[in-house]
Structures are given as C-alpha cells and as structure tokens.
Amino acid sequence: MVQAELIAVLAAVTDGDPRVLTIDAGTALPSGPLQEGHRSLQTGLRAWVERQTHHAPGYVEQLYTFAGQLPGAARSISISYLGLSRQAVTEYPGAEWHSWYEYFPWEDARANRAAPVLAEILPRLARWAGDDPARQSRVAGLFGTGGRGWNEELVLQRYELLWEAALVPEARRLRAGEGETVPGKEMTHDHRRILATAIARLRAKIKYRPVVFELLAHEFTMLELQQTMEALAGQTLHKPNFRRFIEQQELVEETGKSTSGLAGRPAKLLRFRAAVLEERGVSGTKLPLVK
Amino acid sequence: MVQAELIAVLAAVTDGDPRVLTIDAGTALPSGPLQEGHRSLQTGLRAWVERQTHHAPGYVEQLYTFAGQLPGAARSISISYLGLSRQAVTEYPGAEWHSWYEYFPWEDARANRAAPVLAEILPRLARWAGDDPARQSRVAGLFGTGGRGWNEELVLQRYELLWEAALVPEARRLRAGEGETVPGKEMTHDHRRILATAIARLRAKIKYRPVVFELLAHEFTMLELQQTMEALAGQTLHKPNFRRFIEQQELVEETGKSTSGLAGRPAKLLRFRAAVLEERGVSGTKLPLVK
DNA sequence: ACAAAAGTGTTCGTCTTACACCCATGC
DNA sequence: GCATGGGTGTAAGACGAACACTTTTGT
Known about the structure:
- The structure is a homodimer.
- By secondary structure, chain A is of the alpha+beta class.
- Chain A contains ten helices and eight strands.
- Chain A has helices spanning 41-53, 100-103, 115-129, 133-143, 155-164, 169-172, 191-205, 222-233, 239-248, 276-279, and strands at 3-14, 17-22, 31-33, 60-69, 75-84, 96-99, 252-258, 268-272.
- In chain A, the strands form two sheets. In chain A, strands 1, 2, 3, 4, 5 and 6 form a six-stranded mixed beta sheet that branches. A two-stranded antiparallel ribbon of chain A has the order 7-8.
- In chain A, helix 5 runs antiparallel to helix 7 (191-205).
- The radius of gyration of chain A is 21 Å and the shape is globular.
- At the A-B interface, strand 4, strand 5, helix 4 and helix 9 of A face strand 4, strand 5, helix 4 and helix 9 of B.
- The structure holds a DNA duplex.
C-alpha cells in the first residue's frame, strides 16, 4: 500500500518565452495525492491543478512514474504529467508562471543566449571529467563541444550530468560537493528533474505531432507559430524553410483575415487544420517497406 | 492509499515470430504488487517476472500507468513495462511464450497473413460504422482501407476500435454486444490492451533507436536482423534497401566470420556497434534550423 | 548447371538546405 | 524612401524507392 502522488508540468508560451506553472514562489510544481473522488488519474491531476492554481490545462499527457520515499517508512508513487495551456496569465495568489530558462538557463540556444552560462558550466564540467575519456566524451556529446552539434532534446541527460557532477543544489542535499553550483533556479524534491523530462518530451514531440497548436490562440500568424516553436526548441529556425515545413505537412489553413497596424507587411492569419488529426496515420515510416 | 501493481510485457523473437511471456496458459502477463523489499519500480518488476517465469529481462522500459479498481472499494495503480529478451525458451511450468499474433492476428501484415482475419473483421466494422461518416473514416484510417495505407504503429488504436465496436470478448464483459467476436486470443483484465501498447511502442521505437539488438544473439546475419525487424513491424521489408538502411546508420560491424552449411552464399556475421549508443545525440532534427 | 541467398550499381524522384530575391505595409 | 516583416524561386545535394544485376556457396 502506497501513496499515489500526481504531479503536473503545465506549459504555456508568452512573449516568446516558454513558461511553467508553479506554486510556492516558483519552487514546486502543482501536485497532490490521488483521492477517492477522482474518477481517473487525469481527472485527479486536473482537480489538483485547478485547486492550487485556478488554471485548467487543455491537452494533457502522461510523462513518467517513479517511486519515492515519504518521510517515515511509507512509500510513494509519483505519476507526472505534461499539460499544455494557451495562456500564461496569473490571477491566483501563489500560482506563478516562470520561464523554463530560469531553471535551465543553458537550454536556451536562441541567438547564443546560453553562451554566458555555458562559459561558466563547461570549465566546471571539464574539471569534473578530468582525464577520464568516458566522462569527457559524455560532456562533449551532451553539450555539443568539440565539433559535435547541440541536440536540444537531451534536456534530461544534461540535467542528470550536472547532478552527477554535483553542480546543482539538489545533488548537494544528498552528496556534498565542492565549489559553487551552476546558475539555474532550484526546485523541491525532484521537481526540476520532472520539468526537464517534460521539456525533453515536448521538444521531441513538436517535431512529429501537431501539439504546438495547443499553445497558440485559435488564429495566429506564421511568425507566431515559428516563434512558439523556437521558444520550445530553444533554437532559432530558418524562416522561409520553416514556412515550407509547415505548409508541406498541410497543418494550417488560411482564415482569410490578416494582421494590420504593425510594422511590415500584414501577415495572413492561419488556423490549425483539425482534419489532420484524423488523416494522420501516414506519419513516419522510415523502414524500407517492400512494394 | 492504493495498491501499486507492476505488469510486464516481456518480448522476444524466435523463428521469425515475436513472442510475449505469459502465465496462466497465455491469458495473463506476469505481474505483482510493489513490495517493501523492492528498491525501485524496475527492481520490483524484475523480481516478479523472475519469480513467476524464471526469466530475466535484459532491457526494460516503462510503458504507461493507469488507475484501476480492485474487488471491493480499494483502488489500484498499474504500472506497465516493456522488456526485451534474447531467448524465447520455456522451462518453467506455468510460463509460456505466445506469439503476438495469437492475440492480434490482424496485425501481421507480412505476406498477407492477416488477409483472412481482415476479411472477417472489415465487414463487421462496416456494419458497426453504418452510415456514420466519422466512424467510416476512422475504420478506413486505422485499417488502411479505401486507398489509405496500413500504418503498423496504430496497434492500440485498432484494438480500441474493436473494443468500442464490442467485437472483442473483453468489451462484452462490461457491455453486451450482438453476434460473434473477432478472432484473437483474449486476456484477463486489460492485459491485452497493455500488450497492444507494448507492441505499438516497440514498432515505433525500432525505427529510431537501436533496440532490436536486445532481441538478437550477439552475432547475427543481415537476414536475421531483417527478419527480426519484419517480425516486430509485421511488414516485409525490401532486402537491398534494408541493408543500406542499416549500413547508413553504422549500427553494425563485421565480425570477420561467416555462416556456412546453409543454402546459398554464406552471410557475414555482424555484431552491434555499441559505440553508437554514445555517439547518438545526432538523432533526428527535422526542424529547419538556421545556420 | 542450378537454386538459393548475399550483396552491388544505378536511376529517378522527392525532400532538405541554403541563398537570393521580390512584395506590401507603416512612418 | 526606407525599414520591417511577409512571402516566393530556385539550384545543389542528400535521401528513398525501385529495378536490374553480379557474386558465392551447396547440391
């Protein structure tokens, strides 16, 4: 017999920044135990998020389940979820939206924004790696040094490496370490680890499933779509090719309306073609089928 | 406070057939409650599988967690896992390997093996769909009728459709239905649904992560590799292009040895290049990055 | 010689990537 | 006019699908 805890990473994008909904001044994710009245895990999760933050997630998917130890001998099971929301406005006291990159400043590779943090992190990782070639190659593969490219999906692995090197405060709770920790806001328990898992999942998923649209208003311009993707991926994208990338998948259709009043040529307003959700099935084959 | 149940789908491929390890004469998956002594969910799972089947899974990954109701008012949480194993030999009484396709005969699209079952299923689905265009298009999308191709990853969705149409015995337990059910071996509780989830996950995963090698001996020929993939995907693959598909990813290296004594030209024996696990990180970008 | 399986070459068309350029609006 | 963002054309190269063909063994 165990306690089952539901934990939510609720994400939104505002002003080109991906944000996560938090409680306790940005140190914890909304969460609470599964209760009698909850008809399913998802409804339980939604109930907790709404009670603690007065926000209602739209799209929700399960992330991961892991075992923990409660104070005392009791066991706990934590079931984490990723939710997506269209607005990042706060009205409820205690609930705050914080940028992902407050917690993972090294993850924002747009226009070298992460450069200063990386300049701090990399020497310390080099010190941690020492002469060990296995450690050196792990650092290189994860942080894209030494000619290897940056892979934005390895969010969790990078966090775990920093944890292992005792460069994040969370690791110091259990194992002492020397020197300073690395920039990036701390969270309680393993909540920052869960956030890393959520970011990694979302960064992977936007590439092959039309989930971005859960974060956008129902009408949007191509640039808004692109900037939302860039915020999530933490990478700048090539504008003309991004347009073709979207058009080729037939993800959007024109509404007939355009923006106006801003600088530059008015942009066409688009909407998501909900029909693709049915059509899909043709996704990725990649295997060389016969005939 | 709830009961936490661990459930395993342990898969192997023998004689070109993908198999799953079962108990109770093929009607249930190995499972048991999380206990005090289990250091983690995974070790708990491994303990139960070994106790019930005397088999030890190699690779293990989490599938999905869902809530259930135990007899009485008590709640349960089921955490399901996918495990891969190199051998499908049975020595322990009560533990049996069964082909996936006993449970999902319509999923084996190799050389039209599923044709007879589909001939049985499709008319019944057509009857269920009736005049409803939404239902018709769902059937078409999932079963590849009407010009749309077969997508082998939609295992769970197809099972759920059959469930909804009350064409599987599991659905009849809760909701009555008319006429016969469709071929395919039944399982207790929702174990067949979990198996469908596992198959879908594995079919998706083999395309972008080198997990097939967990199912093969340490030395193998290109044909063995291909046939293992075909067994999992339930599709026949194009031999020359499959070779290039593997070579291009640099997944394997030659051992220097060859087969002999069989019909045809001897094949080179290969082994998995473990180095790729480190190199990876360059996986799939797909987004049009700038510069 | 022939069957059987291994393995190679090559073509054609599509998708990706990069670069260059034109278009429409506000000020 | 010019700054700003919207949008199109296109050529080089990578990749995928399909087909034809050569190679090496056992019988």
